[in-house]
Structure formats: C-alpha cells, structure tokens
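Input structure tokens:
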C-alpha cells in the first residue's frame, strides 16, 4: 500500500526549523500564504505564496521565516508506474515552482480535498489519495515550463553563501575522503572558523554532517537492488562493511540489510 500523509500547518508568528533534515520519501510542500527561505540540497530559495516545492528522498532541507500557511504531502513512489516515476524524477530536478494565483489555486483545491481523507483512511480513500497525488504530479509537470522565475537567496536566511558552497561541495564529493582539515584548505578558511560557523548555521558539526550525507547516500544506494552492502560500504569509503553497518545502525536504528528489507515492505 502507498504511504501518503497530508497535513496543514498555520503559523501566526515566525518559525524556523532548527536543523537540516531529510527523509526516505518525497515531500510536496505548498505555501498558501507568507514567505519562506527554503534551503533545498545546496541552494537557498525565497519561496512566496502560491509556490510548490518538491523535495526528493534523502535531500537535506529546512525552512525559516515569518508567519505562513502551508500544506504538505509526504508520499512514497511505490504506487507509480515506471513512466510516472520518470516524470516525478524530472520534477525533482526543478525543485521549486512559483505558480502564481491561478495555477496555485488549481494545486490548492486538490490538496484541500485530500486533507479530510488523510487520517482514517479506508481502502478506497487510499486509492483516491494516490490518484490525487498523480494529478498533482501531472499538473506540476505541465506548469513547470510556464512558472515564474524562482528567486534564490544570497544574503538572507541563517545559512550564508559560503556555507552553502561548502554543503554543495560535501554533497558532490561525499564518496571521497572529506575532513574538516581538507574542507578548510579547499575554502581557504581556518578549521576553527569553518567549524564554528558551520555548526551555528546548520546545527551540525562538520564531521557529523559529512557522515550524515554519506548515510543518506547509503540509503539511496540501498534502495537499488544493484549493489550489495559490501559494495556500498566500499563505494562510500568506509574502512569495512562491519564498520559501515555499525555506523548505519547508530544513525538509522536498524542494520543496512534490515533497511533494505524495510524498503520493500
């Protein structure tokens, strides 16, 4: 059965997520009102009302800003056929969709209709919800070429441009041997300055963030049947499969093999 959860959140005062986070499912975030700085992957966007954001699995993200109202749909992709998954993956490359009022209203109407059926779901409710998610994916696909230009943030938000560059570098090189020393050298910073600013802006120590990025990469690789746990351990630069398994279990709560089985349930 597909995993689909829909929830609405209205904040009358400013609110910010404390830390970057990720999850093993897709998240469709629709901003009904307000304005948010939205960190997604390695970029920071200014998201305005009547905008949608598609967060792919395992991509680090967070939002911050003033009063707002938004509707979220969290969903797995196991109810989509291969062509529908391809469309969804294509949308994930765009990420942020400033829709404007008319297109935003089309998305919002579907989301509001889903809210009432997302809790005590009957079998038919679940089928209907999966059909609604497919409709949202289809609309966003056709809207994407005519959306307004998305605005990136450089001087606002708690994450500075320098830290965004470091995060992008870690994301792109997480299979290499990365340390705070190598990053400090790469970006011409002292280790102390880099460590303090990174922790202040992201909520993570540099080493912890590198490790979490590798674990997220491991989760993605485990979702594929092509690689064994031993091969994934080697791909990500862990000293042994046993050490990889130990760290993975500490971070995720279950072993890599159990996680691979859980993905299939």
């Amino acid at each position: 059965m597909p995993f689909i959860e829909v929830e609405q959140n209205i904040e009358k005062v400013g609110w910010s997520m404390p830390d970057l986070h990720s999850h093993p499912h897709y998240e469709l975030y629709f901003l009904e009102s307000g304005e948010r700085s939205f960190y997604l992957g390695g970029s920071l966007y200014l998201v305005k009302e009547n905008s949608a954001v598609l967060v792919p699995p395992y991509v680090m993200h967070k939002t911050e800003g003033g009063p707002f109202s938004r509707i979220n749909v969290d969903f797995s992709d196991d109810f989509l056929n291969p062509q529908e998954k391809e469309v969804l993956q294509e949308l994930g490359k765009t990420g942020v969709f400033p829709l404007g009022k008319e297109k935003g209203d089309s998305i919002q109407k579907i989301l509001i209709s889903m809210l009432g059926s997302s809790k005590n779901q009957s079998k038919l409710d679940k089928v209907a919800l999966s059909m609604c998610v497919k409709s949202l994916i289809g609309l966003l696909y056709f809207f994407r070429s005519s959306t307004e230009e998305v605005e990136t943030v450089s001087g606002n938000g708690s994450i500075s441009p320098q830290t965004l560059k470091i995060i992008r570098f870690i994301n792109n090189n997480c299979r290499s041997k990365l340390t705070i020393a190598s990053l400090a050298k790469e970006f011409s910073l002292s280790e102390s300055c880099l460590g303090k600013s990174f922790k202040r802006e992201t909520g993570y120590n540099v080493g912890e963030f590198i490790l979490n990025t590798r674990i997220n990469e491991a989760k993605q690789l485990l979702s594929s049947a092509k690689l064994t746990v031993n091969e994934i351990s080697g791909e990500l630069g862990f000293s042994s499969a046993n050490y990889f398994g130990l760290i993975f279990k500490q971070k995720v709560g279950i072993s890599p093999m159990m996680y691979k089985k859980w993905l299939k349930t």
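The beta strands are 4-11, 26-40, 43-48, 51-55, 61-75, 96-98, 151-152. The chain has a mean pLDDT of 88.
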